[in-house]
Amino acid sequence: MYKNTGSEPKMANLPYFLDGTLNINNRWVKLAAIIPWTDVEEIYALNFTSHTGPKALPARTAFGSLIIQVKLSLTDEETVEMISENPYLQYFLGFERYKQEAPFDSSMMTHFRKRFGAQDIKDIDELLHTATRKKEEDSNDDSDNDPPSNKGSLIVDASCVPGDIHYPTDLGLLNKAREKTEEVIDILWCHRSNTEDKVKPRTYREDGRKSFLSIVLKKRVSKKKRREVINRQFHCVRRNLASIDELKKYADLTLLKPSLYRELLVIGTLYQQQQYMYDNKVTSVDDRIVSIHQPHIRPIVRGKAGAHTEFGAKISISVVDGWTFTDTISFDSYNEGTELISQIEKYKERFGYYPESTHADKIYRNKENRAHCKKHGIRISGPSLGRPPKDEKLRKEQKDIQRQDEAIRNQVEGCFGVAKRRYKLDRIFTKIKASSETLIALIFMVMNLDKALAFLSLFGQYYKQLLEHFLNFISIISQGEHLKRRVIQ
């Protein structure tokens, strides 16, 4: 039964909520115990070469904040708010006492991503894997310490990590370039000097805007009409760039914001690329710019059903016993088949032996990779070269092995799926190239942290049950000895 008191509940005294010890079984307390903070400190300290200036925040605070953001899928502002509200998160960051105020400004998250590069994250991930693997080997210690010649399975694959940009079109990029150059002209004209007898350069911005809307607001447009509007945008951008070159004589470009000045340089390259494609009637060019704000992003042709072309970074990963290693992060398109040999050699460097089998897609099974695998006794997944055997039993066995290989290879697809759905790898919102690479590496490292935490929890439960069984066994034996003495007496 519920009884209505008829009055609003009183606010509890907040200090009582914060009085007491933390739960040692909390996930953040367990997570803080498995991260090598000393090694993180050494990597973090390499970013500071000067001994002057304000004191930087500790490495544990910086690195822990990045882990919290990725693990909880938060923005920079939400990360700081969450840290100020949660005492367990503050313990994870190394705070001695709980503080209700924000520990730092949200803009510091950008600096944290700059101070921990993608290679630094990979190195920390390797240290985590080594520590977890050592505990696993201690739990499965055998008498034979000689490493086998080949052992384990290596699963490799590649995917694209889309960036947060609008779908690029030639007309849209030229229209954005026109608007940016008009903004530059307005700023330079306002800060001009010794140009009283001059007239402000004409931009024809209204005509350019109308011509752009005449295309984008229609469902179907002929190819001839589209080329006419693109040509008109070319004229506007060309005229604006010429006006900017003239205004540079009377106003310094340092008056522009750094971001706007960088975009002006990008527009110059973009104009040349678009002019080349327009004149030669082609749809591609080397190092094609698809975003003025993020000029490092390149089109990645994947041929998927949902999107034939994606725009972002291309990554290659390898999965070993559920642990995901980020091998390559590149914003330039490349053939992932050329990465297999280096991935196999990294496996040899990590474990001291080559894998027994390698599970990869069809693009990896080229002549060079097959020869390398054959040289080191590695079985590569997929059908073998040549005609299938005439023996029906042998042919069936090969098909069963291929089916099992595909089932094993699905594990890497699951890793991409979890990273994109759970950890927001499907769209990277960072704007700087280095920050984007750091975030991608962080996502896979946090995935591995969750797996390591689950393994250690299972490892602890196993030994806890083993200890209980041992104590029960001792109790039974002691009871038996007690009964034996009573019979003798």
From TrEMBL:
This is Putative transposase. Residues 24-115 form the Transposase InsH N-terminal domain. It comes from Lentisphaera araneosa HTCC2155. The lineage of its organism: Bacteria, Pseudomonadati, Lentisphaerota, Lentisphaeria, Lentisphaerales. InterPro entries: Tnp_DDE_dom, Transpos_IS5-like, Transposase_InsH_N. PANTHER family: BLL1974 PROTEIN, IS1478 TRANSPOSASE. It comes from the Bacteria. It holds the Pfam family DDE_Tnp_1_2. Residues 131-155 are annotated as: Disordered. Residues 359-449 form the Transposase DDE domain.
